[in-house]
UniProtKB/TrEMBL annotation:
The keyword Transferase applies. GO terms for biological process: methylation. It is an enzyme of class 2 (transferase). This is SAM-dependent methyltransferase. GO terms for molecular function: methyltransferase activity. Coiled coil: none annotated. Its EC number is 2.1.1.-. It comes from the Bacteria. Transmembrane segments: none annotated. The keyword Methyltransferase applies. It holds the Pfam family Methyltransf_19.
Amino acid sequence: MSDPSTTPGHTAQQKIDTSVPHSARIWNYWLGGKDNYPVDEQAGDAYTAVFPGIVTIARSSRAFLRRNITHLVAEAGIRQFLDIGTGLPTADNTHEVAQRIAPESRIVYVDNDPMVLAHARALLYSTPEGATAYIDSDVLDPDTVLEAAARTLDFDRPIALILSNILGHIPDYDQARSVAARLVDALPSGSYLSINDGSRGIDPEFDRAQDGYNESGAAPYILRTVDQITAFFDGLELVEPGVVPVTQWRPEEGADAPELIGEHGGLARKP
C-alpha cells in the first residue's frame, strides 16, 4: 500500500474545535461512524428528534455514491476521480470502491476541515498501482483545487468530478452554479459530473428540520428544488435515469422498493 500524498493548506495549522458541532462529524455520526464528539452527537440527536429520516438520507446518499462510482469504473471506464468535500473517511470511500474494480485508479480528495485532514493522512491509502492524494482547500477556490489536483490527475484524460452534499453549503445559488461550472469547464471531453444534494419540496418534515437547523446558528446547508439541482448539469448528457431521489438511481437488483426521500442526485457526461 502506498502512502497518500497531502497538499497542506490553511487548515493544516488549525486546531479541531470540539466545543461546537460540525456538519462532517454529525454526518459521520448518522452514518454510524465513531469520528465525532459528544457535541456532534447532541446536535445529531436533536435533529433526528425532529426528523428521524435524516439517517436514511445520509446512508442512502452514501449508497448512491457507491453505485455511481461502480458504474463509472465498471461501465464508463473512468480511472480518475476528483472528490470535493469528501468529509470524514468511512466505509466505501471513493478510492476503495474504484480501486476494488480497477486498482490503477487515481483519486484526489478535497476538503478544508482539519479533522478530515488528519483522518485522510491516516486512512486514505492507495493500492500500489493507483494513487490517492488529499488537497487541503475549499470548493470556493476552484482554481487552487484544479491546480493542485493536476499534480495527481491527468487533465488530458477523462475525470469524474464528485460533488456529494457540498453545493448545499454554498448559500448563494448563482455562486454554487458558477463554482460547479468552473470545475466542469476544466475537465476534458468524456469526463463525468456526479452530484447529490438535499432537495426541497419533497418532504415537508425534512424542509422544516433543515430550516430549523440553519436558523440555529450552525453553518447552513441549503436545500434546493429538484429543478435547481438538475440545472447544475446544464450542457451535459445525463445518464439514465437522470436526476432522481438517490434511492431510485440504479438501485441494486433485489433491493427493497426504493422510497422517495428529499435527496436527489444524478450523473452526467461531458460531451
